[in-house]
Amino acid sequence: MYIQGIGIISPWSGQGSEPLIKEDHFAIIDPDYSQWIDLQQIRRMSRVIKMGVAAAHMSLSEANIEAPDAIITGTAYGCMADTGIFLQKMVTQKEEMLAPTAFIQSTHNTLGGQIALKLNCHGYNNTFVHGNTSFESALLDTQFYLAENPHSKVLTGSADEITTISHNILTRLRRYKKNSVNPSELLNTATIGSMGGEGTAFFVFQALKDNRSIAKLSGMEMIFRKLTPEESLNPILEFLKKNDILPAELSLLITGKNGDIRDDYQYDLAENSIFQNVPKAAFKHLCGEYPTSIAFGMGIASRAIQTGKLPSEMLYSGQPPKALNNILIWNAHTNMRHSLILLQKC
Amino acid sequence: MSSGVWIAGGGVISGIGMNLSECITAFEKMQPGMQEMKYLESIHRKTYPVAEVKAGNDLLASIAAESIYWSRTALLSKIAAKEAWQNSGLSEISAYKVGFVSASTVGGMDRTEYFMEEYLHDNSRGRLRNAIYHDCGSITDLVAESLGIEDFISTISTACSSGANALMYASRLIQSKMLDVVIAGGADSLTRFTLNGFNALMILDQEPCKPFDENRKGLNLGEGAAYLVLVSDRLAEKLQPWCRLSGFANANDAFHQTASSPEGIGNFMAMKRALEKAGIKPEDIDYINLHGTGTANNDSSEAQAILNLFGNTPPPLSSTKSFTGHTLAASGALEAVFSAYAIKEGIIFPNAHFATPMSNFAISPVTSFLKGKNLEHVMSNSFGFGGNCSSLIFSKDY
Prior knowledge:
Helix content of chain A is 34%, strand content 21%. Chain A is an alpha/beta fold and 346 residues long. Chain A is globular and about 60 Å long.
């Protein structure tokens, strides 16, 4: 399927800029939301809904469509801030005098529902909430939908936010480092934990290529079997083979390196063997670690394919690629599962 | 070439029974599951009846053969998923390419609530084991790992239509030939979070709920889990499947974040598209398992949409939520299991507490347990917050 529009709201504004850090985590750079949402609604909407709605609008406008035929969303944590607000009030007010607003906005499908409401879109609408494969689950649903409805356009995206409570808990769980580091140093820290991040990326997909197509999503696979680095080589090669690509034909490998030694070792063996001569790039030092960050990675990789230019901040090994024809995005998750996405020039 | 998706088996745990056969008996004996709260600790105990699963976490943990520290949602999920597999006629899970697609709205919220009480006093406190399974996906992973499923795992959360959407996704996983078997459904435990949320919305009934009744006052919350085992044509040949999942559709009402449009636009579209997908006409439907929550708004929208689609003589219909309560993400799954089983056994479920037809709609649910029916096609409706509307159709095996 083909990417026709991309909307990203992230902590990073592109080549030559520093990602936005607030206290100890990556934080999104808020655009002027009044471009897409009226002021009264801006005040009422929670942050994750605002950013998601804005990114959805950005991708639709690039694809030059008013409304899609289907809306498919992925989010690991959903509306974390509103969930936290309602939970906190429920506990402190001992279940009394609670207003429903935060509860209403706490459901995971609030974003998908709000986009449908805003666009008056009665089409297929689904929300996946499977941790670090939430966005990939949504991509698979998009493939299914386009196979059944080949002339449709699907709006697919993800959004996850970080809150004080979630950051605190994830730090206690050692997902995030106790002491934050400079983003440019994140991938070289060799310590336990990454740094928290957040963001949203939306895409408009269609089955057929046309002159607006930005890049082709040629393949996507989730591997749920827990694989050691040795065991991961074959499934990765098989995935490439299924898409008629040899590892050496890749213009670029983008990994999900996040600066946590407990995660990053998973890439070493493949990087030094099957991908030895392939230039390597990363993206989590630009957006932080969060379960749907691969959508951000896919967004900037698609843009790189379209423009033929790779932001220099991304490359961490090898020579800058001369052409960007085939990009493999590989996310090796903490639980030893893997996600693979193949993007191609079209 | 047909690429059918068949129902090989199903399992349920709910406020009316610890397994499918107990639930069916409760329908037959007209025994709804709403009672005073016994297991959930809430100040609303005396105010709102709920349909709790009649077991504490210690008993559930022992039935599930899992840790007492698991979220209640995960315990319910494992018990129902295991029952579904056991009555599917399939051998070991490892013998097939199996996926697990589960729906949830609360995930491990039951444990997060305990965590928050301590955490809010001091943010370095709160047992982390109560926070790690907060998100819905981690509950699905826990259960999948415990069942030995590793070919595909996913979680869906579209409020009260989640369970139905899990079955749709599962159906596509089989039709695309990615998997041979998918255990699909949903699980939600009762939590103070949802109880207080629905209370704040003022849509809880202080009496047992009365779906489709003129004097309905709101819904009762329930809890539970239910799963169907979906199999491909190839596997179905060797089994005695209950029926086929022949049609499904999902549409968005695009009207309001929590309320349904008066004419039930999304409901109508979901039912109509599901009929189209199944290749049948409205008059072919022999029974509709309603969304039927019992709120004023939900039921009138659904009634209007049904009359618009089926004309003035809709098929027999009933809301099993009048027995199980509203089990949120699990509801679409519970009702899918009941609907598929209705075809297999030729039964129609009663709608409890129905007394007075709605004044605006010429539509009355079935009020007694009917046996010996020949049901060719059964429709199951699930409509939720965020405008998410889904409809499933189960058909006899041809």
